[in-house]
Known about the structure:
Blueprint: E1 8-11, H1 16-25, E2 29-42, H2 51-57, E3 59-68, H3 78-90, E4 94-107, E5 115-120, E6 124-129, H4 139-151, E7 163-164, H5 166-172, E8 177-178
Antiparallel strand pairs: 1-6, 2-3, 2-4, 4-5, 5-6, 7-8
Amino acid sequence: MAKLVVEVGMELDKHLIYYHDMLVSHGLSLSFACITHDIYYTKENLDGLSENQIKNACIRLRKLDGVIGVNKDKKVEDEEIKEKEKELISQGYRKVFDTKKLDFQYKKSDWYNYIQLQDIKDVGLLVYWENKKYYHLPLDQQHKALLEELNSYGFNFKESDLGVDKLRTLYYGKKMYSKNQNG
């Protein structure tokens, strides 16, 4: 049986620059930033689904703008998105989400992954974190370990804090919370 990977997406209450400065002061560097435009399409009813189930029930088209830190040749152009959108609609898909976010990724030089600060339209400012060194732990213990690790970089989360499910929040039009934004 595959292990469940926990990712936390915790809501933040200060400005983005505050958290940028905090992470940099704890030895992390900004390695990637962009403006992301995500459009999700589905044929399915999303009522009652978890965050991960909604994600898996959708096809996502993504456009990146203002990219720093990656190969800019990988950008998808507007015409490609319009063509793919026409194809999906002709196959019976409908657009369910159209959202933009500012995405900033921070890491230490020896990390494979990164702490993400995302300012998501109609959701808010969130910090995302997952770490493969905790994958062997049960869900609750992964959640606790991830929050403790975030706290070591200056955040102040309690073990009982829940993260914001982005897609469920967009779908229901109100904040939806859980312990695992990958669940």
